[in-house]
Amino acid sequence: xxxxxxxxxxxLLGVTGSISAYKSALLVRLLVKAGAEVQxxxxxxxxxxxxxxxxxxxxxxxxxxxxxxxNDGSWNNHVELGLWADALIVAPASAHTLARCAQxxxxxxxxxxxxxxxxxxxxxxxxxxxxxxxxxxxxxxHRLISYGNHIIRAEHGELASGLVGEGRLAExxxxxxxxxxxxxxxxxxxxxxxRQVLITAxxxxxxxxxxxxxxxxxxxxxGYAIAGAFVRAGASVTLISGPTALDLPDSRxxxxxxxxxxxxxxxxxxxxxxxxxxxxxxxxxxxxxxxPADQKLKKKESVFALDMARTxxxxxxxxxxxxxxxxxxxxxxxxxxxxxxALKKLKTKNLDWIVLNSLRDAGAGFGHDTNKxxxxxxxxxxxxxALKSKDDVAQDLVNLVAAKLQEQQPSFLIQ
Length: 415
Known about the structure:
Elements: E1 10-15, H1 23-33, E2 37-42, H2 52-59, E3 68-69, E4 74-75, H3 78-84, E5 87-93, H4 95-103, H5 109-116, E6 121-125, H6 129-133, H7 135-146, E7 150-151, E8 155-158, E9 164-168, H8 172-185, E10 196-201, E11 206-209, E12 212-214, H9 221-232, E13 236-241, E14 254-257, H10 261-271, E15 277-280, E16 287-289, E17 308-310, H11 314-321, E18 328-334, H12 338-348, E19 353-358, E20 370-371, E21 374-377, E22 382-384, E23 388-389, H13 390-408, E24 412-414
Parallel strand pairs: 1-2, 1-5, 5-6, 6-7, 10-13, 10-15, 13-14, 15-24, 18-19, 18-24
Antiparallel strand pairs: 3-4, 8-9, 11-12, 16-17, 19-21, 20-23, 21-22
Helix pairs in contact: 1-2, 1-8, 3-5, 4-7, 9-13
């Protein structure tokens, strides 16, 4: 069977206490054969029906079942697991597990992952006929559906009890077909569908010693908003992020965490050749301590001076490498001579567009949830926008990008 939409997908498979757990071995095998990455999470009850060793061997990953593994305190982070996955599939889903998830009870790793997951969740129930038809189970299934979860209905057939009726776990091939069809429907649509977008966001931190650093006031809010807007427009987004407390606006965004200007440069150079659209909205340090100490500096003199070295200009570097099918747009945050400075940056760094905002505009710049921008292109055509939320500003930028791509069908790069 053709399960091509599963290739490259990251799938969490929850296996619970049901005699049908033996089918999970075949399900894992089919998913792996289709090219998916499969991480199995087993409840304690599931391990009485099938061993973790079997599923670990087939998935090529250690099976997880508890919050802490081994004696060294290693933590199976349920939040990271929920963010990692493209989908969570609970198969078989016992009546007990359906009830716990429907009620939000969180007493094991699987239920914690379920409550943390931002990805689509599929439940494939498996139990005896009367259990499946019981009003409590029916109500729990309806509640799970109301939460936005997907139910892969149990099939009709002979059950372990000898009864005949609904309750059999859907066949592994059926589960794979359901997942394949779901992901086929999720193919990107929108004005930037099939476009690869690279975005940088947030500040950089340049170390003085192991406990101190030089940085700026950037929170990353603008860059993260831009990443979310591009994803909603159908693009595949990679976000290179400096240190920030922000959560990803969409689980489909691939985030690469960096700290220093050098790390951001290296990550940008690596990803740039593959990008159709690159948004470098990060506030990258212009200077970095020339000789960071490897031990904490002690307080001695009344005046303390640092030798600072220039960092490599990421926008200028990428501008020099820009192919004809790529466009380069920069952000200019200014405090004086705003238009003059922005136009200079537009020309000297080989940009195609520059987004100008001024710290003299109330509600614009670092830390705010709003921004006020003026966008100038290489022909010095100007687009002015009123003060609005950063989400709306991001959408304005996406609209400009989409319009330009529709006109000329090139790629696009933003700083």
